[in-house]
Every structure is written in structure tokens, then in C-alpha cells.
Amino acid sequence: MRTGNISLVKKMNKQLVLKLIRDQHPISRADIAKTTGLNKATVSALVDELIAEHFVHESGIGESTGGRRPLMLRFNADAGSLVGVELGVNYLYAVLTNLNADILWEQRRSFRPSEGQEAIIGEMIELIEAAIRRAPATPYGVMGIGIGVPGVVHTESGTVIFAPNLRWDDVALAAVLQKQWPERPVIVENEAKLAALGEKWFGAGNEFAHFVYISAGIGIGAGVVLHHQLYRGVSGLAGEIGHHTIDVNGIRCSCGNIGCWEMYASEKYIERRLSEEGRSEWLDDRFSIAAMALAAESDEQLARILEEAGRYLGVGLLQVIYAYNPEAVIIGGPLAQAGEYVIGPARQEVRKRILVKKESEPLIIASKLKEKSCAIGAAASVLETVVLPPEYAAV
Amino acid sequence: MRTGNISLVKKMNKQLVLKLIRDQHPISRADIAKTTGLNKATVSALVDELIAEHFVHESGIGESTGGRRPLMLRFNADAGSLVGVELGVNYLYAVLTNLNADILWEQRRSFRPSEGQEAIIGEMIELIEAAIRRAPATPYGVMGIGIGVPGVVHTESGTVIFAPNLRWDDVALAAVLQKQWPERPVIVENEAKLAALGEKWFGAGNEFAHFVYISAGIGIGAGVVLHHQLYRGVSGLAGEIGHHTIDVNGIRCSCGNIGCWEMYASEKYIERRLSEEGRSEWLDDRFSIAAMALAAESDEQLARILEEAGRYLGVGLLQVIYAYNPEAVIIGGPLAQAGEYVIGPARQEVRKRILVKKESEPLIIASKLKEKSCAIGAAASVLETVVLPPEYAAV
DNA sequence: ACCATTAGTTTATATGATAAACTAACTGAA
DNA sequence: TTCAGTTAGTTTATCATATAAACTAATGGT
Fold first, then answer.
1. Which residues from B are below 8 Å from A350, CB to CB?
2. Quick check: B248 and A152 CB within 8 A?
3. What residues of chain B score a pLDDT lower than 50?
4. What is the DSSP letter of A182?
5. Where are the transmembrane segments (chains A, B) (predicted)?
């Protein structure tokens, strides 16, 4: 049971100070004391520890405001490195970053979905090894490894419970990787959830306490951030909203159900419509929403198909809004590459259909990290675990 | 900004101890120390304060387990009283309870929906006055007043923003009541959210960290409890899931949208089906699901209509499950009076359609507080505000 | 030149948790 | 019946941490 011992107070305050420095650097001790309400002496003591731990450094002398000039503090993004990996349906994408999510090295590899689990995990290990080799000399070195997977994950054990597009079932991914790097934290999590973390720490979600990241690609997944924290639910299924019904008499979904949202507001829908409209020339191996959006500028038919998907996206967003009532909805994943072709109609549809107008309408915006959301989020998950754990929360 | 000063630690520990006593009484100081991990001296000091504040009392000597016999502690449910009011579409229901939600007095009054705001609020004030007059002599007296309303509420100001069934818009209810009782906290909140609180503190939600209470009556509303706390969203709209679309090509809803869940899994649906099937003899003033369920035992047609509604309830529950991934879903409101006629088919539908079987399937159970959920929840909201605030949570 | 102002440190103090020693009260077995 | 062992609860001394206030340091403006 979490009792409040005195060292908890210290932890909380130290976290608070570190977070403030990260958010508002350069900042002086005096300013920290003013904005947090902590005593100057307390701030000085905590800052000294943070400096000793290499997470903060003094970055020179600031401007005087009529008295002694302040010593400015900065978050030390080079205290260590992070490895983030996105496991896609037919590719692996890895990044090595500093603590500020600046990409120091990245690599993308394709594989055929037909390759077995073993082979794919083997490639992943190689990729992570390559990343670790490139890590610069820093006080902490590589602080951990985060992996985003397209499926439902049991986080405690790092097991991939269910990943239909990979045809994985109960794969103990974290255990395998942990054996490879016993000394580093390994985090396995759903790709949309990690992308949400990425946007929260380094992207479009920065300023919101409650937001939902929508990953619209082959299917639809979501990462839900409530009270500044990722919400997972009891078994990590929270946010699997691609299977929200939007039409009980609609099309059968691969999940066995009928009329799921992801049959209407995803690449699946666009592909179906392209072939229905006799535009199957777009349906080759290199199918890309980005290219389609480009072509749509002078091709009304393509534009219309994208807009249809956007409208369906909006229909489903209503349910997201009613469920979570977020400040913002961030649209990411391949579909977001169509930009305003998709997001505009979605926004319109929401405005048209929503119940209580002003109060409840969230911002609907595009992902900032784009195709890097997941990998950067995977790195961010390490940051959050090791360096900046969320505020001490309800039990 | 919430800094960790030392008195925060004390508050946390005191809350922890009080909660433990409430949950597990009778319990000894030694047991509290063991289960919380707090030092015996700390526990004794905190318990002494709680006793001085009348929230705890010693209830005699317990059984020895081979040594000195323990002094058993109990939560003092009679330290004060709570007033909870449910504002229905055409009735008011008020309860006066002790801190254990034991009903000391209750009263129900009907009104015609055509009566104006003023008149209704006037009746409410009379009712609350009557409740306060009945309050027994206790150390704290009436500790506050909670009001549940069928609509969207801005909690900080206690304003009813939007209550379509009452035709209320921006009514500053809390302000009016607060003027009447300036010294007592007045809480105005959505009825489903309060009912969820009621079930959390005194009903079927007690053992769950994450659960959703579904209030199925004329419409569908929900109260969402995540991490043991009511989740409201940015503007109190979280849980307005009655307007989740389940059929884009379906029936027009009063909200302007099409195919909303509450057109299919509510009293509205049952009334529609009754008249479609030529059973409009049930549609008089005293229409009641409970009576219908009773008659359904020997009337297949009625049973079938209830089951249909139950199946639609299940279809919509999938979306609740995918959104929140709760441990349990508690079905309340008038529709729940049909018991297994509705809940059974809902359960089946969920089981049939759900994506990841075992892991994600929540318990689907009936409300325990029945038609009293909201009023008791309103009382509980006072308890939570004044006596047992939620664990100190994320910022 | 020096006073008012701001930045940051040092020192003394208060709060509250804790460990250890203590008193109190009981059980069970010799 | 007695006493060793055990459990409950209190008292006392100590420790960790935040804070207030006094201090030193450094600066700008008159």
C-alpha cells in the first residue's frame, strides 16, 4: 500500500523541479521557487542533486532584472540515449535518440509478412544492436528499449496477446529481448498507445491533459491520455476503438463483428472504394495515401474518396468525444498523410453532429511526429519509465 | 502547483487509515500498521486524531491471538448526515442518510414537466429543507447536499448546461441552493455520474478500480470510474455515450444525429416496439419496465421486445468495453428492472462479438442500489468531497 | 559611491515518520 | 499457579525533509 513517507515528498518535488526545468528551460532557481511555491533552499538542494545526477546542467548566466544575474538551468538531453522501435506489419523502424527525442540514428527495414516470428524477432534484435552500437558516450548510455507493436499487449509481462495483422498470438516478446539485454528496461506496448505518448512528450499533445491519438492505417487504434497519463484499462484494451460499430447493418469486419469503424475510416475503406470506382491502378505494392493526396489536387474522384473516409472518421470521432471528452484529438497514421482532405471533412462531420456545441468540441489536429510517432513514442516510454515517471497518481 | 510539503504526507496517511477502517472495520491499530506498512506509533497518532474528529470510535476489545487483546476501531457512520436528491424528468426524490448511506428519511414527489424551472427548484428547496429538519443530532450535522440532474453539468459552477428532457439550458442550480444554505457544500452533477459514485461507495462497484455504470432509462447515460475515480473529461461530457452511433442508416435521434444507441437500448425503443407490435395497452401513464418484465414471464411477445433491447444494449456495450476496458459494467436505470430479460441477452451479444475473448470481457451485472443509485450517489458525492477525498491524484 | 533589488546559500527550526524501548494484557504450558 | 512468550499499544529519541529568516553575492540605477 502506498503510504506517504517523507522521501515520497522529496521524490515528488524533485520530479516537479525536473519537469519544470525540462518544460521551461532555461530557468533559474529563483524562478523555479516562484512558480512551484517551493522554498528557495529546497529548490537549491534538489537542483544540486539533479546536477550531480547529470539530468540538469547550468548553462550560463541570464539577464539581470535589476539585481544579481541568475544562473540558468537546462535539462541535459545528453544524459543518456533511448532506443525506440516500431514493429509494423511488414517493416521495422528503429530510432536512437537523446532524451529530447532528437534522432541520432534511424533505420528502416522491410520484411515479408510471411516470415515467421523467429525471423522477425531476429531482425529486431539485430536492429536494436545496431542502434546501441551507435549510441554516443553519455553518463547513462542507452537507458532502455521501447517497442511498439500493432496489437494488444500485456504490459507487465511484455507479451503480445493478439496481433491479427501479424498473426501473432501470445508472443512473449519482452522476455526474449530482456534476455538479450538483461540490464536495460525493455517496454513492449501497443503502437497507438506509444504514439500517443510520443505526441504527449514531443508532439501535438504537449499542452493537453486529456487527449486521444488516433492511429488510422490498415485499421484504427487509439492511445488515450487522461490526466496527462496513458490510460490502458484493466487488460490493455482501452482504445481499441477501431471496432466501434458505426453501422449494425454494415460490412462484416475481420473481427467477426459487423459495421466496425475501421471498415470505413481506414486504408481498407480507401482500397475498397478505389476498386469499386475502377481506380485499381492505385492498388499496387507501393500504395500510399500521401501520393494519393498529392494526385487528388487535380483528380476529383480521388479527392472524393479521401473525403468520404474523412467523413466516416468524423462519425466515429463523435463516439471518441462522448467517451473521453478530450481537449484534443490527434489524427495520426498513414491516413493522416492525406492532411486536410481527411481531417477537414472529419471536423465538419463532428461539428454537424455533436450534441453540446462549444463546450464539448475538441481540437481535431494532425499528428506532429507523423510516421515517427510510434518509434519516438517507444523512446518516450523509456524516458517516462526511467527518468520522468508520471506524477504520483491515485491508487 | 502541487508541491509535496510534509503536511501532504500526513493528509495522505490519515486518509489511508480512515479508508482502511471504513473498509475493514472492526480493525485494530496493530492490524492497520501491518496492512499499511506504517509505523505503529504513526498509526496511533493518526487514529487518536480521527477519534477526536468523531470519524472513528473504539468499539470494544477484540479476540486475543495469543497476547494482549486489541482495541477494535470502527468507522463512525453517525458523525454526520448527508442529503442526496435526484431530479428526474417528472419527479424529485430525496434521501437523508448517515455516512454509511443508511437511509434515515426519504421522500418522493412528482411534478408535471410543464412546471417551470422556478417552481421545480422551489419544490426542491422545500424537499431539502424537510430532509435537513429530520437530521439527527450528530457532531457534524448535515455535511452537504448533492443533487443529480439528467443532463450535462459544469461542476465547478454547478450549472446545468444542457438538460434536454427537462428543457433546461444554463441553469445555475448550485448557486441558487448555495444561497439558501451558504454554510454547506452543494454539489450538482449528472445523474449517471452520481449513480456511478453511489455504486462505487455503497453498491456493485465497490471492488473495482475501473467500471462503467450505465443508466438506461429514457436515454442512456454513463458514469465512468477509472482508477477508483469518477472521470469527467474536460467539460463533463465524458460518458454521454447514449449518442454513440450504432447504425449510420438508422433512426433519427432527438440529438439530430442518426442511429444513436439510446434509440435502441432504452425505454424509447421499448415504447416504439410496443406500439409497432400493437401492444399499446402498455403505453399509458404508469408504463413501467418492472411490470412488463413480470408480465413477460407468461407473454412471449413482451419477453421478445425486452430481449431485443437487451441485445442492442450489448451491441453498444462493446463500444464501452473498447473505450474503457473496465473490470465491470453495471447496468442501472429503469431498463435494469427487467433484470435478466435485458442483461442476459446483452451479455450474450458481448460474448459473441468481442474481439479478444477472456482478457477483455468485463463482468456485466445489475445495479445494486436500484432506483436509489442516483440519490445515494448524490449523498456519496458529499461524503467524497467532505470526508473521504480520493487519493491524491495525478496533476 | 551606494542603495535598492534580485539570486542564491547557510542556519535554525518545525513537522511528521520511524525505530527502539517501554508498559499493558493476554495465552498456554510447566 | 506461575511465568515465559506473545501481541497491543505508548513513549522517547532520532532522522529526513521543508521552511523561514538571515546571510552573502552580484547587479543596475541614481
1. none
2. no
3. 393-395
4. T
5. none
B375-387 CB burial, b ≥16 within 10 A, e <16: bbbbbbbbbbebb
In chain A, whose CA is at the least distance from the CA of B315?
A245
Tell me the CA–C1' distance in angstroms for A41 and D25. 16
pLDDT tens digit sequence for A36-90: 999 999 999 999 999 999 999 999 898 888 889 999 999 999 999 999 999 999 9
Question: For residue A89, is it left (φ>0), alpha (ψ between -120 and 50) or beta?
Answer: alpha
| Nucleotide D5 C1' to residue B64 CA (A) | 14
For position B101, what pLDDT does the model report? 98
Average the pLDDT over A136-157 and give the result.
96
Is B52 near strand D, with its CB below 7 A from some atom of it? Answer: no
Distance CA A315, CA A250 (A): 14
Domain residue extents for chain A? 6-75, 81-197+375-386, 205-367
Is the CB of B3 within 7 Å of strand D? Answer: yes
Q: For domain B6-75, is the CATH number 1.10.10.10? A: yes
Quote the cell numbers at residue B266. Answer: 432504452
Measured CA to C1', the nucleotide nearest A5 is: C17
CA B264, CA A304: separation in Å to the nearest integer?
A: 32
pLDDT of residue B394: 33
Residues of B in contact with A239 (CB under 8 A): 322-323, 325
3-state SS, residue A321:
helix
Question: Does any CB of chain B come closer than 8 Å to the CB of residue A323?
Answer: yes
Give A183's DSSP letter: T
CATH, domain B206-367, list 3.30.420.40, 2.60.40.60, 3.40.1830.10, 3.20.20.150? 3.30.420.40
A53 within 8 A of A101, measured Cβ to Cβ: no
Are A162 and B241 inside 8 Å of each other by CB?
A: no
CA B28 / C1′ D6 distance in Å = 16
Query: CA-CA distance, A316 to A260, in Å (whole number)?
Result: 10
Distance B15 CA to C27 C1' (A): 35
pLDDT tens digits for range B40-51: 999 999 999 999
State how far the Cα of B282 lies from the Cα of B292, in Å rounded to an integer.
8
Smallest Cβ–Cβ distance between A319 and the set B3, B227, B245 belongs to B245
CA distance A258 to chain B (A): 9
Among B334, B344, B327, smallest CA distance to B372 is for: B334
pLDDT band at A394 (very low <50, low <70, confident <90, very high): very low
Position A395 pLDDT exceeds 60: no
Name which of B269, B276, B246 is nearest B258 in CA terms: B246
Domain A205-367 has CATH 3.30.420.40: yes
State the pTM of this model.
Answer: 0.94
In tens, the pLDDT along A159-174 reads: 999 898 898 999 999 9
Length in residues, chain A: 395
DSSP β-ladder status, B142-149 and B211-216: unpaired
Domains B6-75 and B81-197+375-386 share a fold: no
Other Cβ atoms less than 10 A from the Cβ of B336: the count is: 24
Before A26, cis peptide (omega within 30)?
Answer: yes
Nearest to A237 among B5, B319, B325 (CB): B325
What top-level class would CATH report for the domain A81-197+375-386? alpha beta
Chain C nucleotides reached by a protein CB under 7 Å = 4-12, 14-21, 24-28
Evaluate whether B127 touches B94 at the Cβ level (below 8 Å).
yes
For A232-245, give one letter per residue: b (16+ CB within 10 A) or e. bbbbbbbbbbbbbb
Angstrom distance (rounded) from CA B326 to CA A193: 17
Nearest residue by alpha-carbon distance to C1' of D26:
A68
User: Taking CA atoms, what residue in A is nearest to B321?
Assistant: A238
